[in-house]
Amino acid sequence: MTSRIFAALTRETDESKSDAEPVRDGDDTVIADEPPVRTDGGTVADSAGDASNSTVGDDASALDRLRRSRFLESIPFWGPPAVLVFFFVYGAIAWNFVISLTGWEGLGSPDYSSLSTEMYTRLLSDPSFHAAFRNTLVLLLAFTVFSLILGLLVAILVDQKIRIENTFRTIYLLPMSLSFVVTAIFWSWMYNPSNGLINEALRGVGLDAFTQAWLADPQFKLAAIIFALMWQFSGYCMVVYLAGLRAIPKSQYEAARIDGASTIKLYWRVIIPQLRASTMSAAVVLVVFALKAFDFLFVLFGVNPGQSADILSVMMYRVAFDRIQWAYGSAVAMVLFAMTLGVIGPYLYVQYRRGEL
To answer: Domain spanning 119-353 has what CATH number?
Structure first.
């Protein structure tokens, strides 16, 4: 019994010694334990080893990851367009701003040695700029608001599952596919005081006293422009609102009906508040198109629509290319750009905060 216990103790002592001894090869050369290898190619240094091997491995793995990343692989696809946009869009905007700080008339080379805000000071004292700025604001607000209201009403009507829904929706949206030039020519005929459709219709129902020279009378000129643009873009609002209406669960309609809500209260308190996203997206698009209405007014009136219908884009063209005052026209263009940025910027910020960008 005693001999078996002594033999077991002796065997455990020998095993512990063998674990502690270093591994030797046939020439009694000590072979050091290899450090563990990481899966990314680097090595793990022990507390007493040299940490430079770990740093080299990390750098190599980082370069390897960058070389194999999708970012580098995608550069040939988005790189050239990004360079072109940066140069021809943002570079042109920056150059336009610099031109507005000079007194360049369009001939010769601009003098960049003395930059000033003289052109912007001149804008503040120019009555034609005041009229164009006021008309632009009226056009933006009236066109956007009335187009949204009309589009919403038509969308609610179409949402009632009318029999000719698809045909009506296609016809109502069709004017948006037309260019501003085509729309302007069409409405110049509609507003013709002699044989235009509007005046002929008024005469046909015995309302001769209401016939007007719609595009010549300063009192009706801007209103006629807003009405024509509403005709062209209210169909877009209808489509946006219709998509929003059909995204609302039918259970909400049924719950409101059970609670005794009338049709007006149903839409005013339950349905319309849920269309805020549709309203915002449609309003931004309408504002952008209103700021781009230069083609429409240029075809109707040329470079001189008069103070009652003049807008900033037409004034910019008239000053820069008709009067050859490029620095002053650049200043008008920067004001128009600031207005556009003031509309698009908050919208993009809200979309970013919502995580939709």
So the answer is: 1.10.3720.10
